[in-house]
Design goal:
heterodimer; A: alpha+beta; five-stranded mixed sheet; four-stranded antiparallel sheet; 13% strand; B: alpha/beta; 8 helices; 12 strands; globular
């Protein structure tokens, strides 16, 4: 019988009993010979009263049963034939020939052959069943372990590695996971680790991935691929499994188990794909929600000053006669203030867009204290009666930065403190290790937890619920200048590296 | 006595210019900057009308309308920077009387104010409504323009009456559909549009540039207040 049937992909795993292995054959020969010599010696040593010649067929029957139980049906049958021969040759007159002179001997030998063959057949069947059951149990255990491993796998790599490990156990030989990328076959992982593919195996793998069909290994000793290949997913980036020939009697059963394994792997990969898609979808929705929140906040920021300007201007025009002089002046002041606020929002918006586009840095030497003073005086101009104290450290080293951007960031922090914090507001500067910093402090409760998380995170766009773009711009500017904006020591702190490099 | 207007907005600048403008236009004003304060002011000051910003910090403006409508029919004009039509529609369906989108010119707000403050119809309802040059006899189911009778189907007639009863005030799709076709048809906006088209063909002098029935895109329709009732 050829190894082809054992290849694992035969559709009839139980049917004709599998052929005996060379070890079983050898052992049977040896056993029969041993019994013959043993019996010969025993007959010579013990008198016929203790060991009558009639027990000899029993001894050989034991040999046949042992072979059948140990090695299965075919070996049992062979043992029966050999025992028949041995009885004839060694113990039947004339001795040491296959001739039989007495007809009763011939009859006894034939009966022995039939009994031995039947006993061998039954014992062999039993053995084969037991072995099949054991293989089945083993395969089921492996498949069970595989499904829990696949269920626990959170990445494709983990799922493939689990499949590889269990497939190697199932086939008892080499196993590989392959993919096709840019028309090339790549071994993603293998067991043993350095198991590559020879050209014949590669072309079999390529065929398997291209046609989506199983490519069985060539029979032992025949030219062709030593590995069988099973397709898992198709197309570019498709995955296939490869495994060694399925040796042993229970090869077909193991083959079925491997097909079940492939099916489980396919489902696991599908599940991971779905999970991945769902995750991407969630992220997209989050980005969308943030964007929509930014738009709402932006629309509010731009439209509120516009509403005041348009409303006040139209009131001045339409209701001119009925407005008191004081009301008229207040309306004009409101228009002026809100136009300033609008300008600030537009500037911030442009700034943020520019920073998001990764504008090139054009640093010059900047004195941080000068910049802080400029920002404070701009804030005092914008917000009359603003209570802003300055505590600037003397002799700060100059830094490499863009003065305009830095001033904008500081102004935004002061603006934020005046609008959302509580007076008095103070601006402090200082020097810490290899960084210089400016702090904007107010007497309020500080930012919300959400805002603190946003400050610490990488996100540039404003957090959900954050009104205005001021802080977002300050954060973006800090990052653009190589520093960072943080909440430290109860104040918004903009720290910048104290660079000593020359222009 | 000057009517008292309650302005509810969390933006100080809006309160500031509306205060001056409404004062000059002949109204007294009081203000609130949160939903809770607004409801308190309604109890204490008994205003004649409320101008309400939908984007309040503590409660959404819509919930203020909902609470207020349980016990009061105080006219409410919704003011909002939000350009989402859904917000306005929900506010109107909850019982707001009209809306003005920010930013707005003061004239637009004053016009809406006047419409909402117009006294409700007399107890014995007028059987004769007027919309522009149209004369509508609700008792006789009879519409004429320049003494020429127009032939309207019953539904078209009901639609016209709804718009003519409150000229200048917006009626949402849902309000019109509920009133004329019943609550089961509130989603049949395309249907309503067809009827409005037919009605315009019959009553407008130039149906392609309607002058009597104005469209509020995405929200509903408005009888033209400029003509008003005589």
């Amino acid at each position: 019988m050829s190894d082809k049937v054992q290849d694992g992909l035969s559709e009839e795993p139980s049917g004709f009993p599998p052929a005996p292995g060379p070890f079983g054959l050898g052992a049977t020969f040896a056993l029969v010979l041993l019994t013959s010599f043993g019996a010969r010696v025993a007959l010579a040593v013990f008198p016929a009263a203790i060991l009558p010649e009639a027990t000899l067929p029993m001894l050989f029957l034991i040999t046949v049963l042992l072979s059948a139980v140990a090695f299965g049906f075919w070996t049992g049958l062979l043992a029966a034939v050999l025992a028949f021969g041995a009885l004839n040759y060694f113990f039947t007159v004339p001795l040491y020939t296959f001739h039989i002179s007495r007809p009763q001997d011939l009859f006894a030998l034939l009966v022995f052959l039939i009994v031995a063959a039947l006993a061998g057949l039954l014992a062999g069947r039993l053995h084969d069943r037991a072995e099949a059951a054991q293989t089945r149990a083993e395969a089921l255990t492996i498949l069970g372990a595989l499904s829990s491993d696949l269920a626990a796998a959170e990445t494709r790599t983990a799922a493939l590695a689990a499949a590889l490990r269990h497939m190697a156990r199932l086939c008892g030989g080499p196993a590989v996971v392959l993919t096709r990328r840019d028309e090339h076959i790549l071994v993603l992982m293998s067991d043993p680790v350095d198991r590559g593919l020879d050209p014949v195996e590669l072309s079999a793998a390529e065929r398997c991935l291209r046609t989506g069909r199983i490519e069985p290994a060539a029979a032992q000793g025949w030219p062709g691929s030593a590995l069988s290949f099973l397709p898992i997913t198709e197309g570019e980036g498709g995955i296939a499994l490869g495994h060694g020939r399925l040796a042993g009697r229970e090869g077909p059963l193991r083959g079925l188990a491997i097909i079940a394994l492939a099916e489980q792997l396919r489902l696991a990969l599908q599940r991971l794909d779905f999970a991945e898609n769902a995750q991407a979808e969630r992220q997209r929705a989050e980005v969308e929600a943030t964007r929509s929140a930014v738009l709402t906040s932006l629309s509010h920021d731009l439209r509120t000053p516009l509403a005041t300007i348009l409303g006040a201007a139209s009131a001045l025009k339409d209701l001119d006669a009925s407005l008191s002089p004081a009301a008229r002046i207040d309306l004009l002041a409101a228009i002026e203030e809100e136009a300033g606020r609008l300008n600030q929002h537009v500037t911030n918006l442009l700034q943020l867009t520019r920073l998001e586009l990764d504008a090139p840095r054009r640093p010059t030497w900047v004195d941080l204290n000068d910049t802080a003073e400029a920002a404070v005086s701009r804030a005092r101009r914008s917000f009359k009666d603003a209570d802003i104290a300055m505590r600037l450290a003397p002799d700060l080293p100059m830094i490499r930065a863009e003065g305009g951007l830095l001033e904008q960031a500081l102004f935004n922090l002061i603006d934020n403190a005046l609008h959302h914090g509580r007076a008095p507001v103070s601006v402090e500067s200082g020097n810490l290790h290899d960084a210089v910093f400016v702090r904007v402090r107010d007497a309020g409760n500080g930012p919300s937890d959400l805002l603190r998380t946003w400050l610490a995170g990488p996100e540039m766009r404003p957090a959900l619920g954050q009104r205005g773009l001021g802080l977002a711009v300050a954060k973006a500017i800090a990052r653009h200048l190589g520093g960072r904006l943080s909440w430290q020591d109860g104040a918004f702190t903009l720290s910048l590296p104290n660079t000593t490099e020359k222009p | 006595m000057r009517p008292l207007i309650l302005i509810v907005d969390d933006e100080a600048q809006i309160l500031r210019f509306l205060g001056h403008a409404l004062d000059a236009a002949g109204y007294d004003t009081c203000t609130a900057s949160s939903g809770a304060e607004a409801l308190r002011q309604v109890e204490v000051r008994r205003p004649d009308l409320m101008i309400l910003d939908l984007g309040l910090p503590d409660a959404d403006g819509k919930s203020v309308i909902e609470t207020l409508r349980q016990s009061s029919d105080l006219p409410i004009i919704v003011l909002s920077a939000r350009d989402q039509e859904m917000e306005k529609i929900m506010a109107l369906d909850l019982g707001a009387d009209d809306f003005v989108a920010k930013p707005f010119a003061i004239g637009e707000l004053l016009a809406r104010l006047r419409v909402c403050l117009r006294p409700a119809r007399a107890i014995a309802p007028d059987t004769i409504l007027r919309l522009g040059t149209l004369v509508i006899d609700t008792a006789a189911h009879h519409v004429s323009r320049d003494s020429v009778e127009l032939h309207l189907t019953p539904k078209e007639f009901d639609l016209l009456c709804a718009l003519a009863e409150a000229p200048g005030r917006v009626l949402t799709h849902r309000q019109l559909l509920t009133r004329i076709w019943g609550p089961a048809h509130v989603e049949d906006v395309p249907y309503l549009r067809v009827f409005i088209g037919q009605l315009r063909q019959k009553v407008e002098r130039n149906p392609s540039a309607p002058d009597l029935i104005l469209t509020e895109p995405g929200i509903g329709y408005r009888g033209n207040a400029a003509h008003g009732r005589e």
